[in-house]
Amino acid sequence: MTNWQLIKNIWQFAKPFRKTLSIIFVCILLIWTVEAVNTYFLSNIFDIIQLHSNDPNWMPVALGFAALAGIGVVIKILISRFQGNLEIRQLDIKASNHLNHHSISKYFNFSNGQHINEHSGVKQNIITTGFSSVQGQIHMFVYVFFPAIANFITSIFMLFAISYWIGLPYLAMSFIFVWMMYKFNKYLQPKIREVRDTRNETSRTISELYRFVFLIKNEVAEKKSLDDLDDVQDKHQMAYQGAWIPGNNWLTLIRLTTSVFRYLTILLGVYLLFKGFITAGAIFLIFTWSQNFLSSLWMITDMQKQFITDKINIEKYFELLEIKPDIEEIENPIGENLVGDRSEEHTSELQSRQYLVCR
User: Fold this and answer.
1) Spatial contact of 173 and 296, defined as CB atoms under 8 Å apart
2) How far apart are the first and last CA of the chain?
3) pTM of structure
4) Rounded distance, CA 49 to CA 58, Å?
5) Alpha carbon of 126 to those of 204, 316, 326: distances in Å?
6) Confidence at residue 110, expressed as pLDDT on a 0 to 100 scale
7) Which tens digit of pLDDT belongs to each residue from 33-81?
8) What average pLDDT does the segment 289-314 reach?
């Protein structure tokens, strides 16, 4: 299953909440827009200090910019309050309930034979982890992906507003970052599948030990069973280390590269300041929005790491839910009303017969 197919499948769960999700994204974008305006007001204060610090006539202007920034903070708080209440009313529990309803309805489609024959412990583990992963992905899109994208868009806009010499390197860094994340994703996916398989094997082994405990004790096989469990758990541990130690090193390389890049652009900003191309307020903006730019990339990095982990669980979850039942449902089954009507007719017929016999 490709990443795009996975996102489309997750979107089917989130589709009933698309209006709410759109409003939330707009709220987040507005918050970051207000933040951009606030930093612009504060940068003007730095420019006034640099150029007119000895002129008291500029003090009301500086105080005016500070007051506007304060108003912006209040606006951000009010937007956040509206967004939070909307999430509580229309998303948090409702999305979980909708996902539960869909999972159970699909699970009911299995025949009794499938419920009996298929390993219930593994099946329950797949459903539980898959449900948690799908729910986690929806929440991650709302609370991580949306803020990261809004932050990224605002940061790039503000860096270009400072100077093209500052904005263009950051735009180029964005493409380099996407390439590095693609390589990271391509490397880690098969490793995570191995981790998932060994984890499921561990769950299956533990389930069987609990299930056949009487047989194990009768055969005096406790030591052998524990040794087998240790072997399975060691395989899981080795697979986990083999996946995430190199993966963590790769993420460290990404963070180190982007951090070094940021300080190189700050040095470029200082050079432009002394050459007279930008002001001290622009340096303040570079410090602020270069950090916000890096934060958005690192948020996407953390999200990508979680996305790869959840993807393996969600794939197995969808595979299980898409299993065809052994017994297909008929198109027009006998409904409760029809059964009730026939029962009433049968009861009336019996009462009539009893009446005739009594006579």
Assistant:
1) no
2) 75
3) 0.70
4) 9
5) 11, 7, 20
6) 59
7) 999 999 999 888 888 887 887 788 888 888 999 999 999 999 999 999 9
8) 81
